[in-house]
Structure formats: C-alpha cells, structure tokens
Design a protein that fits this description.
Elements: H1 2-18, H2 24-42, H3 56-87, H4 92-117
Helix pairs in contact: 3-4
C-alpha cells in the first residue's frame, strides 16, 4: 500500500508541473478565448434563399387547405365507420384508407404549423 501512495503523490506532482492545474490567470485567458469562439457562431448572419422563403399569407393558406382536407377526411372516416356499425355495410377498406389519410394529414399539419409558426 505504501507503493500506491508514492505513485499517487508522484502522479500529482507530475500533473502539477506539467500544467494540469492552471493558474487563475490562465483560466481567465481560456475563458476569454472560449467566449470569442462562441461569439463567432452567435454573430453569424443567416442567409435565406428566395426559393425557401414563403410569405406568411401563403403559409396560412397552405395550413388552411391542409386543415380543411383533414376535417373532410375525418368526417368521411367517421361516416364510413358509422355505416359499417349501424347499417352493416362492407366499407372497411375505404374506412381504413381515409383513416390513414387523416392520420397522415394530422401529423403533417402539426409539424408544418410548429416549424412555420412556433416562434411566432
């Protein structure tokens, strides 16, 4: 056990001499350089292409159309489900197709609204 204590002591001495523990001045210098690096990322100007830029009015129109189609597909899904249960019609496949369209449009509508309008 005495050998382990000597080994740890030598390891601490070598670490201290090699510069493993920095002085307060060196720590302040390191913090300053890190701040400069972060500033280069923060001050970077974002350039948006004309092809990606969509006016807010167009965004609202797209979301409105998606919402209207979503509402119609949900009503059709419900109507087909009711006609299966109440009237015994064999419309399971169209019911499932409209259910899939409804789920897809709901997810697409939510993601689009979050991406375009989350930060207001």
């Amino acid at each position: 056990m005495l050998g382990l204590g000597k080994f740890l002591g030598m390891l601490c001495l070598v670490s201290f001499l090699w510069g493993g523990w920095s002085s307060p001045v060196r720590a302040a210098e390191d913090a300053g350089s890190g701040h400069e690096v972060m500033q280069s990322f923060i001050k970077k100007e974002r350039v948006v292409s004309e092809h990606v830029l969509i006016a807010e009015k167009e965004r609202r129109q797209i979301l409105f159309i998606m919402g209207a189609v979503l509402l119609v597909s949900i009503l059709l899904t419900a109507g087909l489900g009711i006609s299966m249960v109440v009237y015994g019609k064999q419309v399971f496949v169209p019911h499932m197709i409209f259910a899939g369209i409804s789920v897809f449009l709901a997810i697409a509508h939510a993601v689009t609204a979050i991406v375009w309008f989350f930060p207001f």
